[in-house]
Amino acid sequence: MHQSPDDLDRTDPEGAIAAAAKRCSNWGRWGADDVLGTMNFLDDAKRVEGAALVRRGASFSLSQSFDTDGPQKGWRRRTNPVHTMTDTGTDAERGVQGFPHGIGGADDVIAMPLQCSTQWDGLGHIFDHGFAWNGRRAGDVVTSLGDSVTGIETVASLIAGRGVLLDVGRAVGTDGELPDGFAITHQHLEATIAAQGESSRVGRGDLVVVRTGRLTRARRDIAEGRGWGDYAGGDAPGLSFTTAGWLHGTEIAGIATDTWGFEVRPNEFDVAFQPLHQVAIPNIGLFIGEMWDLDALAADCAEDGRYDFWLTAAPLPVTGAVGSPVNPIAVK
Fold this sequence. Notes:
Largest sheet: 9 strands, mixed
CATH class of the largest domain: Alpha Beta
Strand content: 15-25%
């Protein structure tokens, strides 16, 4: 059963979240010990199906850059990456590296929050009333040592299969973009699928990427000298809270957007913070990707009329991490 935004009591986020969590819960679906959530839907057969979609060999990186010019502004200590060289060409020229027979080299180090740019949210990232994925107590899952149960490394070998682009920005937006605050409903998602055709059907085990055009707009602002503005954490188009039933019912393995926060901002309740996350991650067990760069892929899909592709998007297997940087590669 799908909700409409008109069905929401915007004064009662607690009630709406509780009802959606109960309606969409996958707790126990794959047993009490499960650590994979919706990645259980992405099986070997689905990977074979995805691999068969490669025809031209055209490949697209869906990652933003990881550098000091990124969108982060320090909220909750989320900063842009700091990249430092530890060995350089200058060192090599001056012979201070201590290597024999003229060989020299360069090395570097990077310091960054794991969710500062293109990334996956892991199952230990969000809790619902103190409970993590599959009904575990949050404190039994994530401690100061990290996520000892559903750390992002548990899916490091799994996130590769059939990718599907839903270019909602082009299908229902203006000039390929949705305005900030635009709540994408299941009707918008289904209308996009209908407009794009059979190659954008969505079902069990798929990895869905939703383009809103928000990153396109941010890039235009940067080019015109206005900078990133409030791309990180500010108003943005995104999925409506009412899509929880669609996300659950389609049995997709993961979903990612070109926005900072995946769901519409401002959120749809009078007082709320990321309520769709609160249902999707700890209750559905859904993997959510954010800040993906979908523009080049979207242009190619619009040109050839094919919206599905092989997608590999393995997280860095950082032991115990609740999220991870990723460089997703789509191949058509």
